[in-house]
Every structure is written in C-alpha cells, then in structure tokens.
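In this section we walk through a basic example: taking a raw amino acid sequence and producing a predicted 3D structure, encoded as discrete structure tokens. The instruction is simple. Fold the sequence below.
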Amino acid sequence: MHLIPTSVKLLLKSVAMKKVVVVTGASSGIGLAFCERLLSEDDDLHLCLACRNLGKAEAARRSLLSSHPAAEISLLQIDVANLQSVFQASQELKQRFDRLDYLYVNAGIMPNPQLNLKALFLGLFSRKVFHMFSTADGLLTQDDRVTADGLQEVFETNVFGHFVLIRELEPLLCRPDIPSQIIWTSSSNAKKTNFSLEDFQHAKGHEPYSSSKYATDLLSLALNRNFNQQGLYSSVICPGTVLTNLTYGILPPFIWTLLTPIIFLLRFFVNSLTITPYNGAEALLWIFQQKPEFLNPLTKYHSATTGLGNNYVNPQKMDLDEETAEKFYQNLLDLEKHFGAIRAKSLDSRSQK
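The resulting token sequence is shown next.
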C-alpha cells in the first residue's frame, strides 16, 4: 500500500475548493492521454492517478508535470482485481479528500485475446465489413481465469472491483448540493448476446471482455436510477478503436504498423477508428465539460475521428432495459456481502498503522 506523509495529507485537505478527479488505469494508454488533455483543459484541479503499478504511475506523473508544472497530481495504489487493495485504496481516498467530483473508471483488461481469422476473412467480403471493424463483433475471444478472490478476472477487474470502490466512496460521491460524476470506459464491443444474468461473471463463455463491458453499461444505468437524487450521475463512453496495450495483445505491433495505411483509409468510412489514445480520450474530456443532469443515461458517448483527423463525440442509444439493470445491480450487492471479512481485515490493518 502506498502511504503518503501527514504533511501531504494536510495539503490535500487544503485544496477542498478545487475539483478532485480520480482516474483508474491512468499510467498509460487512454487513461494517460485523458489526463494530459484534462490538464490542458483545466489545470486548476487535483488529479489523482489510481494505478496498480506505482512505478508506472510515478513515471506518468512526471510526464504530466513536465507539460503542466503547476498541476496538483497525487498517486494512489489500487489493484481492482484484488478486493483487499480496493478496500485499502478507498480508505486512503476518504482520508485524503472530503469529496470527489469525478471518478473515471478506466482500468480494464482483455487477457489473452485470440483473433478469429475465419470470421475476419469472411467479414472482409461481406456487407458487414464496416460494422466488423467498428465493433470487432465476433472477432475476439479470450481465456479468462479465477483471481485470488475466487472471481473471474475480467469481471472483477472491469466491473466488480470498480463497483466495490464506488460503494465504498459513496460518502464522497453523494452530495446533492454539488453533483458528482462516474464515467466508465466501455466499448462498442459490449454485446447483449454475450451477457447473462445467470452467468454475469461469464465463467461459461468465451467473450468475457464483451460481457464485462455490457455489464458496465447496465451498472451505469442502475447507478443513475439509484443515486441521481443524491447528486451522483453515471455515464459510459467508448474510445473507439485505439492502438494501446489491449490491441497490441491481439496482433503484434509490427502488424498494426503494416495495417495503418489501410486503417487510415477506412476512417473515411468508419469514424470509430480513432487510432491514437489522444483521439480515443475525446469522449472522456467531453463528458467533463458537460452538466451531468443533462446527459442521457441510456446513451453511450463514442469518441470519433473523421478521415481528415477531426475529433468529435457521437452519441448512440444503448440496448439496455432498466429491469435487467436493476436485477444486475442487486446481484452485485448480494455478491458484495460475501466479502465482508476482507473489508473488515483491510479496515483493521489500516487502523493499526
């Protein structure tokens, strides 16, 4: 656990009037690109980089400070695939801050992605070729595994770890006088057909990433239903197709380099091919600029880039229903109860320090 000196904690408490923004998965890719764009938009805030690897987080912090030397940036160690780490990190945040204005739920994994070459080849010569490139529908499968908490790794990392974090941070997020926002990095690969309430961890399937992203869409809808009256709003975005560590796991980097001219040509027809993390962060930044009460909880906000390289946000209605969202939310609440002992142990270990 990364501990900070008392003097630093007092300094953090002294910036109570500044907006506080926490970003998970902020050390690279879309998360880091968003932090850079956010500070360029408004450097009069406190930015907390919540990352699993503190070494990478410190490198990201130095990079951000090199271009924004006056920015206030702190680090928080959290592994959302480890509930003890989540409980400890939430307690640390409650000690540092009196409130949170924005929680960007960006950390996520797509382990061992396998490309369906047959589906890719058939798709290239079908009327769905543009749809295939914009959503990766039917192209990817993944091999999941079970974590030390006994949960499916993709589900715990992409969904449940963040859900527990949000639950623990409710006192900082729920303030009717000043709205707070949760922003999920979802995907156009979030498919209803890959999600089941009976197997919401996707233990029996082969597309856990798609299932987990549809689950985050459902959870966001349920959070709005349960917390809007308390001043907490939730939104989901899709960064488009971005070349990051996730996509480099599908094909080697040199293959992507060879495909780059084709991808840029396709962008004249498929604007979801954002390619760079900077472009992919467009919707994340756009959400920051909006009043949350005017955002539609049934809309996913997609980053898009034109063939000429201009960025914009493309709102698209999600295929969700409130009844399924509420049932899923209740399932998560039930699952959370099984980890009370881990929470108690985490609180006890902090009180002894």
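Looking at the output, two observations stand out. Residues 208-227 form the longest helix (20 residues). The radius of gyration is 20 Å. In the next section we compare this with other chains.
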